[in-house]
Every structure is written in C-alpha cells, then in structure tokens.
Amino acid sequence: MPRVSAVTSAPEPAGLDAPAIDLAGQPTDKEWHVLAVVALGGALGALARYAVERALPATAGSFPVATFTANLLGCLVIGAVAGWVLRPGAHRLLRPFVATGVLGGFTTFSTYTIQVLTAALHSRVDVAAGYLLATLLGALVAVEAGFVVSRALARRRPGSGRR
Question: pTM higher than 0.85 for the full model?
Fold first, then answer.
C-alpha cells in the first residue's frame, strides 16, 4: 500500500528511497515499531563496523581496508536487500531494519571521504585516487551482484522469506 506524504498528499514510491516514517507529525503506533527496528539495526550495524575497524586498523595515508571492506559489504547487502525486500510478501519492517538501521550503522560515506582527503594530504595521491575509484567501482559492482543473486535465489525458492 503506498504511503501518502504529509506535505503533498501524493503517493510515495514503495522502493528503498521511500521514507520509513513520516517525521512531519507524531509517529503512529505502526511507526514506533519502525523507529525501534531502525534503532536496533543501527546499533547492530555500528557494533559490526567497530569490529571491522578493530580487526583491520589503518595508519594515516595508507589504504583504509576496514572502511573499504565495510562499504563494499554494505553495498553487496543493500543490493541483496533491494532484490529481497522489493518483492511481494516481504515483511514491512525488513527494509527499515536492514537497509536503514544495520547498513546505515555499518557503512559510511563521510569516513570514506575523510580518508581520501587524509591520504591526499599525506602526499599519498596514489592511495587517495585508488581508494576513490576502487570504492566507486566496487560499490556499483557489489550492489548489482547482491541484487542479481538475491533475485535469482528468490526465483528458486518462491515461498522462502514470506511473512
């Protein structure tokens, strides 16, 4: 069922870009569930990200393997989530929990840009340029791969993952 925007009263798309809740007014009982799963997912994603950073520490100006790994894994999973969640019968809390919560806490664009800048400022333009391009291309490939694999798996097991 399409959501209606409080501002325009026009239906919003049901895809990954649709907001999980309408923050213009007071959250409804249904929206409190969404807030709870986003918060829980965000906490889990942030903890997982912290674990990756601890396991793969970097020095200033070196290739930031931890952020690169987290962002590409996040892209792979968001591609899979897009293929999985945008199908009929997906649970309504799945997208906000995984896409907004877990992956929002796990991946980071801001750290990526700071690390590119830091490498360049440490005269490691080769690392900065390589990281910039590898993340961009890797992210696109990972999202597509996740999407394709999840759609293929969904076709093979038509009843799995339903409510």
Answer: no
